[in-house]
Design goal:
Blueprint (H helix, E strand, L loop, with lengths): L2 E5 L3 H13 L3 E5 L2 H10 L4 E5 L7 H11 L5 E5 L4 H9 L4 E4 L4 H25 L3 E4 L2 E4 L4 E4 L2 E2 L4 H12 L4 E3 H9 L7 H15 L9 E4 L3 E4 L9
Parallel strand pairs: 1-2, 1-3, 3-4, 4-5
Antiparallel strand pairs: 6-7, 7-8, 8-9, 10-12, 11-12
């Protein structure tokens, strides 16, 4: 049984989620403050966190940041009345896996939760199929099974999304990905408005793997398309 933690200060919304998710067979726990919710994630294992942003004391953005600093794999679905694009981008850049705005329909929320669990299962099946799959490109080495990466033998401190981005690139050298392609492949989103988060993750990844991030030779920008990994001259570059 999947175990979900709801961190939400509105008792009506919390109760709605507990009832509906419980009816679907999920085990649901609830905390009303960011601090209590964060502490609960440290005490118990959860399969998903549904996280409100406007919480008393520690807000949801800070909770998300702290969860990600300790656990890069725990899925987080942000639930917020903040509907501006910048707030959504901030949430995704902090490591959220999905962002649902209030007011919301329970079907929309459930669909988002199911999509997250489907992506996790697909990733697990792929990991089982590939076993200890090692990808190498020059000084870079990536182990898809253990989800570790090194450069010149030194461990790279990659977030979960940075690892997934690098894995997608290294599996497809020379292939030009649009920002939308990467958004769908790594985040599971199909909304063009979130493409800014792809750019920021690419920039951070470049700072970790490129010799000179201002003149990248591994992750190259392709004019009018997006990005590709490697130096195969299939498309023009920036």
């Amino acid at each position: 049984m999947k175990k979900i933690l709801v961190i939400e200060d509105d008792p009506d919304i919390a109760r709605l989620l507990e009832l509906n998710l419980g009816d679907m067979g999920y085990q649901v726990a609830h905390e009303a403050t960011g601090a209590d919710g964060l502490a609960r994630t440290r005490q118990e294992d959860f399969d998903l966190v549904v996280l409100d942003i406007m919480l008393p004391g520690m807000d949801g953005f800070e909770v998300c940041r702290r969860i990600r600093a300790r656990d890069r794999r725990l899925p987080i679905l942000v639930l917020s009345a903040l509907s501006d694009e910048v707030d959504k981008v901030v949430g995704l850049e902090l490591g959220a896996d999905a962002y649902v705005t209030k007011p919301f329909g329970i079907r929309e929320l459930v669909a988002g939760i199911k999509a997250i669990f489907r992506r996790i299962e697909v990733d697990r099946q792929a990991d089982r199929a590939i076993g200890e799959s090692i990808l190498e490109a020059g000084a870079l080495k990536l182990n898809r099974s253990s989800r570790t990466a090194t450069k010149d033998g030194s461990a790279l401190d990659l977030t979960a999304k940075e690892f997934d981005l690098l894995s997608a690139f290294m599996q497809n050298p020379g292939h030009a990905f649009s920002r939308q392609d990467l958004l769908e492949r790594v985040w599971g989103y199909d909304y063009p408005g979130y493409s800014h988060t792809v750019n920021s993750h690419i920039n951070r990844l470049r700072r970790k793997i490129e010799q000179d991030p201002t003149n990248p030779v591994l992750i190259r920008t392709v004019w009018g398309i997006g990005y590709r990994f490697g130096d195969e001259p299939s498309l023009s570059e920036e």
